[in-house]
Amino acid sequence: MRTNPVLPIIAFLAIIFSIGIFKTQTALASHPVADSEQAKTAAQEFKNIQVLKDIPADQLIPTMQFIAASLGVECDFCHVQGAFDKDDKKPKLRARQMMDMMFAINKDTFHGHRVVTCYSCHRGNMHPVGTPMVASAEMSESTQQESQLVKAPSAPSADSLIDKYVQSLGGAAAIEKVKSFAARGTIEMGPGRSVPIDIYDKDPSMRISYMHMPQGDSITAFNGHEGWLAFPHGPVRDMHGPDIDAASMDADLHFATHLQQMFSSAKVEGTEKVDDHDTYVVIGQREGKTPLTLYFDQQSGLLVRLYRLGETALGQLPTQIDYADYREVNGVKVPYQWTLARPNGRFTIKLNELQQNVPIDDAKFVKPARPQEAERMPDHH
Ligand code: HEC
Ligand code: HEC
Predict the structure, then answer these.
(1) Cβ of 127 less than 6 Å from ligand 2
(2) Is residue 115 part of a domain?
Protein backbone atom coordinates (compact mmCIF):
# COMPACT_ATOMS: atom_id res chain seq x y z
CA MET A 1 0.00 0.00 0.00
CA ARG A 2 2.64 2.50 -1.02
CA THR A 3 0.51 4.45 -3.43
CA ASN A 4 -1.94 7.03 -2.18
CA PRO A 5 -5.03 4.93 -1.44
CA VAL A 6 -7.39 7.89 -1.43
CA LEU A 7 -7.46 8.88 -5.08
CA PRO A 8 -8.52 5.49 -6.41
CA ILE A 9 -11.17 5.34 -3.72
CA ILE A 10 -12.55 8.74 -4.69
CA ALA A 11 -12.58 7.83 -8.36
CA PHE A 12 -14.22 4.56 -7.45
CA LEU A 13 -16.93 6.18 -5.36
CA ALA A 14 -17.51 8.76 -8.05
CA ILE A 15 -18.21 5.96 -10.47
CA ILE A 16 -20.36 4.02 -8.05
CA PHE A 17 -22.47 7.03 -7.15
CA SER A 18 -22.61 8.86 -10.50
CA ILE A 19 -20.96 11.86 -8.95
CA GLY A 20 -20.20 14.79 -11.17
CA ILE A 21 -16.57 15.30 -10.22
CA PHE A 22 -16.31 16.18 -13.81
CA LYS A 23 -18.44 19.26 -13.82
CA THR A 24 -16.38 22.21 -14.89
CA GLN A 25 -15.32 24.74 -12.31
CA THR A 26 -17.68 27.22 -13.86
CA ALA A 27 -20.60 24.91 -13.37
CA LEU A 28 -19.63 24.50 -9.72
CA ALA A 29 -19.08 28.20 -9.24
CA SER A 30 -22.43 29.13 -10.69
CA HIS A 31 -24.09 26.73 -8.24
CA PRO A 32 -22.23 27.34 -5.03
CA VAL A 33 -25.23 26.48 -2.93
CA ALA A 34 -27.44 23.44 -3.03
CA ASP A 35 -30.23 25.28 -4.77
CA SER A 36 -33.39 23.32 -5.34
CA GLU A 37 -32.98 23.95 -9.02
CA GLN A 38 -35.84 23.82 -11.45
CA ALA A 39 -35.39 20.78 -13.66
CA LYS A 40 -32.71 22.21 -15.93
CA THR A 41 -31.88 20.69 -19.28
CA ALA A 42 -28.42 19.39 -20.05
CA ALA A 43 -27.93 22.18 -22.60
CA GLN A 44 -28.63 24.80 -19.92
CA GLU A 45 -26.25 23.26 -17.41
CA PHE A 46 -23.35 22.16 -19.61
CA LYS A 47 -21.35 24.04 -22.22
CA ASN A 48 -21.31 21.96 -25.38
CA ILE A 49 -24.33 19.71 -25.69
CA GLN A 50 -25.54 19.13 -29.23
CA VAL A 51 -27.48 15.86 -29.17
CA LEU A 52 -28.64 15.35 -25.58
CA LYS A 53 -29.83 18.96 -25.32
CA ASP A 54 -33.24 18.34 -23.81
CA ILE A 55 -32.50 15.62 -21.28
CA PRO A 56 -32.69 16.60 -17.60
CA ALA A 57 -29.31 18.00 -16.54
CA ASP A 58 -29.00 15.54 -13.68
CA GLN A 59 -29.24 12.64 -16.15
CA LEU A 60 -26.17 13.70 -18.09
CA ILE A 61 -23.52 12.13 -15.84
CA PRO A 62 -25.46 8.86 -15.39
CA THR A 63 -25.90 8.82 -19.18
CA MET A 64 -22.15 9.22 -19.61
CA GLN A 65 -21.65 6.32 -17.22
CA PHE A 66 -24.00 4.28 -19.34
CA ILE A 67 -21.89 5.03 -22.41
CA ALA A 68 -18.64 4.20 -20.62
CA ALA A 69 -20.07 0.93 -19.28
CA SER A 70 -21.49 0.00 -22.71
CA LEU A 71 -18.14 0.48 -24.44
CA GLY A 72 -15.96 -0.74 -21.59
CA VAL A 73 -13.94 2.49 -21.54
CA GLU A 74 -13.16 5.30 -19.11
CA CYS A 75 -14.27 8.89 -19.49
CA ASP A 76 -10.91 9.92 -20.96
CA PHE A 77 -11.48 7.72 -24.01
CA CYS A 78 -13.63 10.58 -25.31
CA HIS A 79 -12.77 13.50 -23.04
CA VAL A 80 -9.81 15.76 -22.51
CA GLN A 81 -8.97 15.88 -18.81
CA GLY A 82 -10.49 18.86 -17.07
CA ALA A 83 -12.30 20.09 -20.21
CA PHE A 84 -15.27 17.89 -20.84
CA ASP A 85 -16.84 20.39 -23.21
CA LYS A 86 -13.93 20.19 -25.70
CA ASP A 87 -14.41 18.19 -28.88
CA ASP A 88 -10.72 17.34 -29.38
CA LYS A 89 -11.05 13.58 -29.32
CA LYS A 90 -12.41 11.68 -32.32
CA PRO A 91 -14.38 9.10 -30.31
CA LYS A 92 -16.45 11.92 -28.79
CA LEU A 93 -17.50 13.10 -32.25
CA ARG A 94 -18.14 9.49 -33.21
CA ALA A 95 -20.27 9.02 -30.09
CA ARG A 96 -22.56 11.89 -31.15
CA GLN A 97 -23.09 10.21 -34.52
CA MET A 98 -23.77 6.94 -32.72
CA MET A 99 -26.46 8.59 -30.57
CA ASP A 100 -28.16 9.91 -33.69
CA MET A 101 -27.93 6.46 -35.24
CA MET A 102 -29.36 4.80 -32.14
CA PHE A 103 -32.28 7.23 -32.02
CA ALA A 104 -32.95 6.66 -35.74
CA ILE A 105 -32.90 2.86 -35.44
CA ASN A 106 -35.36 2.96 -32.57
CA LYS A 107 -37.59 5.48 -34.29
CA ASP A 108 -37.68 3.79 -37.68
CA THR A 109 -37.65 0.14 -36.66
CA PHE A 110 -38.95 -0.09 -33.11
CA HIS A 111 -41.85 2.40 -33.09
CA GLY A 112 -39.79 4.89 -31.11
CA HIS A 113 -39.22 2.51 -28.19
CA ARG A 114 -35.70 2.43 -26.84
CA VAL A 115 -34.96 -1.17 -27.80
CA VAL A 116 -31.46 -0.84 -29.26
CA THR A 117 -28.88 0.88 -27.07
CA CYS A 118 -25.12 1.38 -27.21
CA TYR A 119 -24.78 -1.87 -25.29
CA SER A 120 -26.81 -3.88 -27.83
CA CYS A 121 -23.92 -3.64 -30.28
CA HIS A 122 -20.93 -2.79 -28.12
CA ARG A 123 -21.41 -5.32 -25.29
CA GLY A 124 -18.69 -3.71 -23.22
CA ASN A 125 -16.29 -3.35 -26.19
CA MET A 126 -15.02 -0.43 -28.20
CA HIS A 127 -15.33 -2.47 -31.38
CA PRO A 128 -18.55 -4.41 -31.83
CA VAL A 129 -18.05 -7.87 -33.25
CA GLY A 130 -20.01 -8.67 -36.40
CA THR A 131 -18.97 -12.26 -36.89
CA PRO A 132 -20.22 -15.07 -34.64
CA MET A 133 -17.46 -16.82 -32.73
CA VAL A 134 -16.59 -20.46 -33.17
CA ALA A 135 -17.44 -22.69 -30.23
CA SER A 136 -14.80 -23.04 -27.55
CA ALA A 137 -14.67 -24.74 -24.18
CA GLU A 138 -14.46 -21.39 -22.39
CA MET A 139 -17.40 -19.97 -24.21
CA SER A 140 -19.78 -22.77 -23.31
CA GLU A 141 -18.79 -22.36 -19.65
CA SER A 142 -19.40 -18.65 -19.66
CA THR A 143 -22.75 -18.95 -21.41
CA GLN A 144 -23.77 -21.42 -18.74
CA GLN A 145 -23.22 -18.73 -16.14
CA GLU A 146 -25.75 -16.42 -17.66
CA SER A 147 -29.19 -15.99 -16.14
CA GLN A 148 -30.60 -19.34 -15.15
CA LEU A 149 -34.13 -18.26 -14.55
CA VAL A 150 -36.43 -21.25 -14.61
CA LYS A 151 -40.17 -20.84 -15.04
CA ALA A 152 -42.07 -21.95 -11.95
CA PRO A 153 -45.79 -22.13 -12.65
CA SER A 154 -46.54 -23.59 -9.22
CA ALA A 155 -44.56 -20.98 -7.25
CA PRO A 156 -46.36 -19.08 -4.49
CA SER A 157 -47.81 -15.67 -5.45
CA ALA A 158 -45.64 -12.55 -5.32
CA ASP A 159 -47.84 -11.18 -2.54
CA SER A 160 -47.34 -14.23 -0.37
CA LEU A 161 -43.56 -14.14 -0.95
CA ILE A 162 -43.40 -10.51 0.12
CA ASP A 163 -45.52 -11.44 3.10
CA LYS A 164 -43.22 -14.30 3.99
CA TYR A 165 -40.24 -11.94 3.72
CA VAL A 166 -41.82 -9.54 6.21
CA GLN A 167 -42.65 -12.45 8.54
CA SER A 168 -39.18 -13.95 8.33
CA LEU A 169 -37.62 -10.59 9.21
CA GLY A 170 -39.66 -10.56 12.40
CA GLY A 171 -43.08 -9.28 11.35
CA ALA A 172 -44.46 -5.88 10.38
CA ALA A 173 -44.94 -4.65 13.97
CA ALA A 174 -41.32 -5.35 14.94
CA ILE A 175 -40.01 -3.80 11.70
CA GLU A 176 -42.10 -0.65 12.17
CA LYS A 177 -40.64 -0.22 15.66
CA VAL A 178 -37.17 0.28 14.24
CA LYS A 179 -36.66 4.04 14.05
CA SER A 180 -32.90 4.27 13.73
CA PHE A 181 -29.64 2.40 13.84
CA ALA A 182 -25.98 3.13 14.29
CA ALA A 183 -23.54 0.60 12.90
CA ARG A 184 -19.83 0.14 12.39
CA GLY A 185 -17.91 -2.17 10.15
CA THR A 186 -15.67 -2.18 7.12
CA ILE A 187 -16.10 -1.40 3.46
CA GLU A 188 -14.04 -3.49 1.07
CA MET A 189 -13.46 -2.18 -2.44
CA GLY A 190 -10.97 -4.79 -3.55
CA PRO A 191 -7.77 -6.41 -2.36
CA GLY A 192 -5.98 -4.10 0.07
CA ARG A 193 -8.69 -1.49 -0.24
CA SER A 194 -10.63 -1.85 2.96
CA VAL A 195 -11.40 0.92 5.43
CA PRO A 196 -13.59 1.25 8.53
CA ILE A 197 -17.07 2.66 8.03
CA ASP A 198 -19.76 4.04 10.37
CA ILE A 199 -23.36 4.16 9.21
CA TYR A 200 -26.26 6.05 10.76
CA ASP A 201 -29.80 5.57 9.57
CA LYS A 202 -32.92 7.29 10.79
CA ASP A 203 -36.58 7.11 9.86
CA PRO A 204 -37.79 8.38 7.39
CA SER A 205 -35.10 7.39 4.88
CA MET A 206 -32.15 9.38 6.18
CA ARG A 207 -28.73 7.78 6.03
CA ILE A 208 -25.16 8.95 6.40
CA SER A 209 -21.99 6.90 6.28
CA TYR A 210 -18.44 7.88 7.15
CA MET A 211 -15.60 6.02 5.52
CA HIS A 212 -12.54 6.57 7.68
CA MET A 213 -9.67 7.05 5.29
CA PRO A 214 -6.14 7.97 6.32
CA GLN A 215 -6.65 11.55 5.07
CA GLY A 216 -10.01 12.03 6.71
CA ASP A 217 -13.59 10.95 6.36
CA SER A 218 -15.35 10.39 3.10
CA ILE A 219 -19.07 10.95 3.58
CA THR A 220 -22.05 9.58 1.69
CA ALA A 221 -25.38 11.00 2.79
CA PHE A 222 -29.04 11.09 1.96
CA ASN A 223 -31.49 13.31 3.83
CA GLY A 224 -34.77 11.94 2.50
CA HIS A 225 -34.75 13.92 -0.74
CA GLU A 226 -31.19 14.93 -1.59
CA GLY A 227 -27.96 12.98 -1.54
CA TRP A 228 -24.36 14.12 -1.48
CA LEU A 229 -20.80 12.97 -1.08
CA ALA A 230 -17.98 14.80 0.62
CA PHE A 231 -14.37 13.75 0.19
CA PRO A 232 -11.48 14.68 2.46
CA HIS A 233 -10.37 18.20 1.55
CA GLY A 234 -12.77 18.40 -1.36
CA PRO A 235 -16.05 20.08 -2.08
CA VAL A 236 -19.45 18.49 -1.64
CA ARG A 237 -20.75 16.55 -4.64
CA ASP A 238 -24.40 15.99 -5.43
CA MET A 239 -26.01 12.65 -6.08
CA HIS A 240 -27.82 12.47 -9.40
CA GLY A 241 -31.28 11.43 -10.59
CA PRO A 242 -31.33 7.63 -10.49
CA ASP A 243 -29.09 7.47 -7.44
CA ILE A 244 -31.58 9.52 -5.42
CA ASP A 245 -34.24 6.87 -6.02
CA ALA A 246 -31.72 4.19 -5.03
CA ALA A 247 -30.54 6.03 -1.92
CA SER A 248 -34.07 6.52 -0.66
CA MET A 249 -34.68 2.78 -0.88
CA ASP A 250 -31.40 1.89 0.79
CA ALA A 251 -32.06 4.31 3.65
CA ASP A 252 -35.62 3.06 4.21
CA LEU A 253 -35.70 1.16 7.50
CA HIS A 254 -39.15 -0.14 6.56
CA PHE A 255 -38.34 -1.16 3.00
CA ALA A 256 -39.84 -4.64 3.53
CA THR A 257 -43.17 -3.35 4.81
CA HIS A 258 -43.27 -0.65 2.10
CA LEU A 259 -42.92 -3.08 -0.80
CA GLN A 260 -46.64 -3.76 -1.21
CA GLN A 261 -47.50 -0.07 -1.54
CA MET A 262 -44.41 0.62 -3.67
CA PHE A 263 -45.51 -1.86 -6.32
CA SER A 264 -48.40 -1.20 -8.68
CA SER A 265 -48.11 -4.89 -9.55
CA ALA A 266 -45.73 -7.71 -8.73
CA LYS A 267 -45.31 -11.12 -10.23
CA VAL A 268 -43.15 -14.20 -9.85
CA GLU A 269 -40.86 -14.67 -12.84
CA GLY A 270 -39.54 -18.07 -11.79
CA THR A 271 -36.76 -19.55 -9.73
CA GLU A 272 -33.04 -18.91 -9.86
CA LYS A 273 -29.93 -19.95 -7.99
CA VAL A 274 -28.17 -17.06 -6.22
CA ASP A 275 -24.87 -18.43 -4.87
CA ASP A 276 -26.07 -21.45 -2.93
CA HIS A 277 -29.60 -20.15 -2.37
CA ASP A 278 -32.58 -21.41 -4.34
CA THR A 279 -34.67 -18.30 -4.81
CA TYR A 280 -38.00 -17.12 -6.13
CA VAL A 281 -37.61 -14.16 -8.45
CA VAL A 282 -40.23 -11.44 -8.09
CA ILE A 283 -40.47 -8.41 -10.36
CA GLY A 284 -42.27 -5.45 -8.87
CA GLN A 285 -43.49 -2.66 -11.15
CA ARG A 286 -43.43 0.89 -9.79
CA GLU A 287 -45.59 3.68 -11.13
CA GLY A 288 -43.42 5.97 -13.29
CA LYS A 289 -40.20 4.35 -12.06
CA THR A 290 -37.98 1.44 -13.04
CA PRO A 291 -39.01 -2.00 -11.76
CA LEU A 292 -37.28 -3.86 -8.93
CA THR A 293 -36.29 -7.51 -9.06
CA LEU A 294 -36.26 -9.30 -5.71
CA TYR A 295 -34.72 -12.71 -5.06
CA PHE A 296 -36.25 -14.42 -2.02
CA ASP A 297 -34.62 -17.49 -0.48
CA GLN A 298 -37.11 -20.33 -0.92
CA GLN A 299 -36.39 -21.75 2.54
CA SER A 300 -35.86 -18.76 4.81
CA GLY A 301 -38.02 -16.31 2.85
CA LEU A 302 -35.31 -13.65 3.25
CA LEU A 303 -34.22 -11.25 0.52
CA VAL A 304 -30.83 -12.38 -0.78
CA ARG A 305 -30.57 -10.16 -3.84
CA LEU A 306 -32.07 -6.90 -5.08
CA TYR A 307 -31.61 -5.83 -8.70
CA ARG A 308 -32.64 -2.40 -9.85
CA LEU A 309 -32.16 -0.09 -12.82
CA GLY A 310 -31.23 3.56 -13.03
CA GLU A 311 -32.80 5.42 -15.93
CA THR A 312 -30.45 7.38 -18.22
CA ALA A 313 -31.04 9.07 -21.56
CA LEU A 314 -29.51 6.21 -23.55
CA GLY A 315 -30.26 3.12 -21.50
CA GLN A 316 -30.57 1.71 -18.01
CA LEU A 317 -27.71 1.22 -15.54
CA PRO A 318 -28.07 -1.82 -13.31
CA THR A 319 -27.23 -2.18 -9.63
CA GLN A 320 -27.24 -5.48 -7.81
CA ILE A 321 -27.13 -5.81 -4.04
CA ASP A 322 -26.56 -9.18 -2.39
CA TYR A 323 -27.56 -9.40 1.27
CA ALA A 324 -26.01 -11.93 3.63
CA ASP A 325 -25.28 -12.75 7.26
CA TYR A 326 -28.75 -11.89 8.59
CA ARG A 327 -28.68 -11.52 12.38
CA GLU A 328 -31.46 -10.81 14.79
CA VAL A 329 -31.44 -7.46 16.59
CA ASN A 330 -34.39 -6.77 18.93
CA GLY A 331 -36.52 -9.32 17.12
CA VAL A 332 -35.77 -8.02 13.62
CA LYS A 333 -33.38 -9.73 11.21
CA VAL A 334 -30.79 -7.38 9.72
CA PRO A 335 -28.24 -8.21 7.00
CA TYR A 336 -24.78 -7.65 8.46
CA GLN A 337 -23.20 -7.91 5.05
CA TRP A 338 -24.10 -6.60 1.63
CA THR A 339 -22.30 -6.36 -1.69
CA LEU A 340 -23.24 -3.64 -4.11
CA ALA A 341 -22.23 -4.20 -7.73
CA ARG A 342 -22.51 -1.96 -10.78
CA PRO A 343 -20.97 -2.33 -14.26
CA ASN A 344 -17.88 -0.38 -13.17
CA GLY A 345 -17.19 -1.75 -9.74
CA ARG A 346 -18.36 -3.36 -6.54
CA PHE A 347 -17.87 -3.08 -2.81
CA THR A 348 -18.82 -5.11 0.25
CA ILE A 349 -19.87 -3.71 3.58
CA LYS A 350 -19.48 -5.96 6.61
CA LEU A 351 -20.87 -4.80 9.92
CA ASN A 352 -19.30 -5.71 13.24
CA GLU A 353 -21.82 -4.03 15.51
CA LEU A 354 -25.22 -2.47 15.15
CA GLN A 355 -27.45 -0.74 17.68
CA GLN A 356 -31.09 0.01 17.02
CA ASN A 357 -33.20 2.91 18.16
CA VAL A 358 -30.31 5.01 19.37
CA PRO A 359 -30.93 8.77 19.33
CA ILE A 360 -29.44 10.39 16.21
CA ASP A 361 -29.48 14.16 15.87
CA ASP A 362 -31.30 15.42 12.74
CA ALA A 363 -28.43 17.89 12.32
CA LYS A 364 -26.36 14.96 11.07
CA PHE A 365 -28.45 14.89 7.91
CA VAL A 366 -28.26 18.56 7.00
CA LYS A 367 -26.56 19.06 3.68
CA PRO A 368 -23.55 21.36 3.94
CA ALA A 369 -24.42 24.63 2.23
CA ARG A 370 -21.15 25.10 0.36
CA PRO A 371 -17.95 23.31 -0.49
CA GLN A 372 -16.49 22.30 2.84
CA GLU A 373 -13.45 20.61 4.24
CA ALA A 374 -14.25 17.17 5.57
CA GLU A 375 -14.19 17.01 9.34
CA ARG A 376 -13.34 14.15 11.58
CA MET A 377 -16.39 12.59 13.03
CA PRO A 378 -17.10 14.57 16.18
CA ASP A 379 -18.51 11.76 18.30
CA HIS A 380 -17.12 8.26 18.77
CA HIS A 381 -13.53 9.42 18.36
C1 HEC B 1 -17.78 7.25 -26.02
C2 HEC B 1 -17.54 8.66 -25.74
C3 HEC B 1 -17.82 9.21 -24.36
C4 HEC B 1 -17.47 8.69 -23.15
C5 HEC B 1 -16.76 7.39 -22.84
C6 HEC B 1 -17.87 9.66 -22.16
N7 HEC B 1 -18.44 10.73 -22.76
FE8 HEC B 1 -19.02 12.43 -21.87
N9 HEC B 1 -19.68 13.18 -23.64
C10 HEC B 1 -19.63 12.50 -24.83
C11 HEC B 1 -20.33 13.27 -25.83
C12 HEC B 1 -20.52 12.89 -27.28
C13 HEC B 1 -20.80 14.44 -25.20
C14 HEC B 1 -21.62 15.56 -25.83
C15 HEC B 1 -23.06 15.12 -25.87
C16 HEC B 1 -23.90 15.99 -26.78
O17 HEC B 1 -23.35 16.79 -27.56
O18 HEC B 1 -25.13 15.85 -26.71
C19 HEC B 1 -20.34 14.36 -23.83
C20 HEC B 1 -20.55 15.34 -22.87
C21 HEC B 1 -20.11 15.28 -21.57
C22 HEC B 1 -20.18 16.36 -20.61
C23 HEC B 1 -20.71 17.77 -20.88
C24 HEC B 1 -19.54 18.72 -21.10
C25 HEC B 1 -20.00 20.13 -21.47
O26 HEC B 1 -19.82 21.04 -20.64
O27 HEC B 1 -20.54 20.27 -22.57
C28 HEC B 1 -19.68 15.90 -19.44
C29 HEC B 1 -19.56 16.66 -18.13
C30 HEC B 1 -19.29 14.54 -19.66
N31 HEC B 1 -19.54 14.20 -20.97
C32 HEC B 1 -18.76 13.72 -18.69
C33 HEC B 1 -18.38 12.41 -18.91
C34 HEC B 1 -17.96 11.53 -17.87
C35 HEC B 1 -17.89 11.88 -16.40
C36 HEC B 1 -17.66 10.34 -18.45
C37 HEC B 1 -17.22 9.06 -17.78
C38 HEC B 1 -18.16 8.49 -16.82
C39 HEC B 1 -17.91 10.48 -19.86
N40 HEC B 1 -18.34 11.76 -20.10
C41 HEC B 1 -17.69 9.50 -20.80
C42 HEC B 1 -18.98 11.31 -25.07
C43 HEC B 1 -18.45 10.48 -24.11
C1 HEC C 1 -26.14 -0.81 -34.31
C2 HEC C 1 -24.92 -1.07 -33.61
C3 HEC C 1 -24.31 0.05 -32.80
C4 HEC C 1 -24.91 0.84 -31.86
C5 HEC C 1 -26.35 0.82 -31.41
C6 HEC C 1 -23.89 1.70 -31.35
N7 HEC C 1 -22.71 1.48 -31.96
FE8 HEC C 1 -20.96 2.48 -31.68
N9 HEC C 1 -20.09 1.43 -33.14
C10 HEC C 1 -20.69 0.41 -33.86
C11 HEC C 1 -19.75 -0.08 -34.82
C12 HEC C 1 -20.01 -1.24 -35.78
C13 HEC C 1 -18.57 0.68 -34.68
C14 HEC C 1 -17.28 0.58 -35.48
C15 HEC C 1 -16.35 -0.25 -34.66
C16 HEC C 1 -14.97 -0.38 -35.23
O17 HEC C 1 -14.46 0.58 -35.80
O18 HEC C 1 -14.40 -1.45 -35.05
C19 HEC C 1 -18.84 1.62 -33.61
C20 HEC C 1 -17.90 2.54 -33.17
C21 HEC C 1 -18.11 3.41 -32.12
C22 HEC C 1 -17.12 4.34 -31.62
C23 HEC C 1 -15.74 4.55 -32.15
C24 HEC C 1 -14.79 3.65 -31.42
C25 HEC C 1 -13.35 3.93 -31.79
O26 HEC C 1 -12.61 2.98 -32.00
O27 HEC C 1 -12.98 5.09 -31.84
C28 HEC C 1 -17.70 4.99 -30.56
C29 HEC C 1 -17.06 6.05 -29.70
C30 HEC C 1 -19.03 4.46 -30.42
N31 HEC C 1 -19.24 3.52 -31.36
C32 HEC C 1 -19.92 4.86 -29.45
C33 HEC C 1 -21.24 4.45 -29.38
C34 HEC C 1 -22.21 4.99 -28.46
C35 HEC C 1 -21.94 6.05 -27.42
C36 HEC C 1 -23.38 4.36 -28.72
C37 HEC C 1 -24.74 4.62 -28.09
C38 HEC C 1 -25.22 5.98 -28.18
C39 HEC C 1 -23.14 3.44 -29.81
N40 HEC C 1 -21.83 3.51 -30.18
C41 HEC C 1 -24.12 2.63 -30.35
C42 HEC C 1 -21.96 -0.08 -33.69
C43 HEC C 1 -22.92 0.46 -32.86
Answers:
(1) yes
(2) yes
Task: Note whether 164 and 110 are same-domain residues.
Answer: no
Distances (CA, A) of 360 to 48, 180, 312, 340: 44, 7, 35, 25
Look at residues 105, 122, 139 and tell me which one is the last residue of a structural domain.
Answer: 122
Q: What's the CATH number where 78 sits?
A: 1.10.468.10
| 198-257: pLDDT as tens digits | 999 999 999 999 999 988 999 999 999 999 998 887 878 888 888 899 999 999 999 999
Which ligand minimizes its atom distance to the CA of 42?
Answer: 1
Write out the H or E segment, with its range, that includes residue 337.
strand 332-342
- CB-defined site of ligand 1, < 6 Å: 22, 24, 46-52, 61, 64-65, 67-68, 71, 73, 75, 77-79, 84-85, 91-92, 95-96
Strand, helix or coil at 159?
helix
Tell me which long-range contacts 320-327 makes (C-beta under 8 A, separation of at least 24): 321/250, 322/274, 322/275, 325/350, 326/300, 326/302
Phi first, then psi, for residue 361 (nearest 5°) are -65, 130
* Interval 125-174: pLDDT, tens: 999 999 998 887 766 555 555 668 999 999 999 999 999 999 999 999 99
Q: Is residue 180 part of a domain?
A: yes
316: CA distance to ligand 1 center in Å? 17
